[in-house]
Amino acid sequence: MDHSLDHILAPALAERRAAHRYRHRRLLQTPQVPEVIIDGQRYLSFCSNDYLGLANHPDVIQRLQTAAAQYGVGSGASHLVSGHSSEHHALEEELAAFCGRDRALLFSTGYMANLGAITALVGQGDVVFEDRLNHASLLDAGLLSGARFQRFLHNDLDNLHARLEKTEAARKLIVVDGVFSMDGDFAPLPQLAQLAQQHNAWLMVDDAHGFGCFGQTGGGSAEHFGLTQTQLPILMGTLGKAFGTFGAFIAGSETLIETLIQFARPYIYTTAMPPAVAAATRTSLQLLQRESWRREHLHQLIAHFRRGAAELGLQLLDSVSPIQPIILGEEARALAFSEQLAARGFLVIAIRPPTVPAGSSRLRVTISAEHSQAQVDALLDALDAVNQQVPA
Ligand SMILES: *Cc1c(COP(=O)(O)O)cnc(C)c1O
After folding, report:
1. Ligand 1 atom having least distance to the Cα of 114
2. For residues 103 and 96, is the Cβ–Cβ distance under 8 A?
3. pLDDT greater than 80 at residue 180
4. Residues 89/275, Cβ–Cβ less than 8 Å
5. pLDDT of residue 391
6. Structural domains of the chain, ranges and CATH numbers in brackets
């Protein structure tokens, strides 16, 4: 028997390859912009989460540079030791004001924010209810928390209600994506807030894809639906998507934030993000709030894309967000679509199981305020041609 590491690991890789689920990394040689160079080839990209085009904004870059000159690069320690800089602190205060919450707490990534918050808030003897299409970081956090883990049907209030009725746990946490990362649709947040209040449950929303894209000032799903801190007490956002930088935050009451500082292990036991990244994020927050034309242009492009794709007979989902999936079914079909688009110079990623349920492999088109209408039209033309080429 061969017990070497490679011998034991190889079959799972072969199996994944045979199932058309093998994933490859591409080498990006430009900033995150619509016209990228990847593996030496030029593409028009429709797969970035940089929804407002701030990742490469000159003011954000400038701020990163000046702050790095002032503070250096590494933060050198965790927040609780000596790594909490005045830039982190100022950003937290600005994010709290932006969200209309008492306080906000920075995390180094969104994955860690979700892991930290959920494991600090519930444990053995409690119950966590999660939409079955929640982001992997939320699902992992629910499983790791030690609380009883219940997944309810996607956006199905009756299914959640029935589950809430049956539980007697003291702590009940309902967790959803504000805008679902692979389907692009909203969670029914006002109804979820009401249900949570009726059942003395707490509502947590991961708004990684809502912030910057929705709400009058870019305040995301909470602003879009007008949900207060009482209705939506645990609000999470990421900074690596529409903010164009890196990191994440949780916003809520003084007591919530102090609880996370004391008990959220992925907050405590990790190095603080570089202060210059926090400084750059302060600039992107100003741009995101102030320059609403980015949001307006983005929503015009989304509507334009949806009209065009519907005319081509493509199967879209019920999404008004920058995430516009085209459902194709089997893995091989989604891959063939993606490959043929690439051959025409368009980068659109095929999303397959286990990221999405079997039989719902898709192209995940994402639209950015940096795109022009002509670029969206070019994508629609290419989709039309490929749709006629790839067998159903
Ligand atoms: C991207 C994403 C995360 C993870 O955030 P990172 O900062 O990239 O770790 C969490 N939740 C959702 C819904 C996301 O889309």
Report:
1. 10
2. yes
3. yes
4. no
5. 78
6. 20-49+292-389 (3.90.1150.10), 58-290 (3.40.640.10)
Strands 361-366, 323-329: pairing kind: antiparallel
Query: Cα of 37 to ligand 1 centre, how many Å?
Result: 24
Tokens standing for 274? Answer: 């570089």
pTM for the structure as a whole: 0.96
Scanning the chain, the segments in alpha helix (DSSP H) are 5-18, 58-71, 86-99, 110-121, 136-145, 157-165, 189-198, 220-225, 254-263, 265-268, 275-290, 293-311, 331-343, 373-389
Say if residues 359 and 365 touch (Cβ distance below 8 Å): no
- Give the count of alpha carbons within 13 A of 266, CB side only: 24
pLDDT one-digit tens code per residue, 82-116: 999 999 999 999 999 999 999 999 999 999 999 99
Identify whether the C-beta of residue 210 lies closer than 8 Å to the C-beta of residue 218. Answer: no
- Tell me: cis bond preceding 354? Omega within 30 of 0 counts: yes
CA-proximal residue: ligand 1, atom 6 (nearest): 110
The predicted pLDDT at position 354 comes to: 87
Cβ–Cβ < 8 Å for 101, 256: no
| For ligand 1, mutation pick of 206, 234, 245, 355 (most atoms within 8 Å of CB) | 206
Strands 346-347 and 41-45: parallel
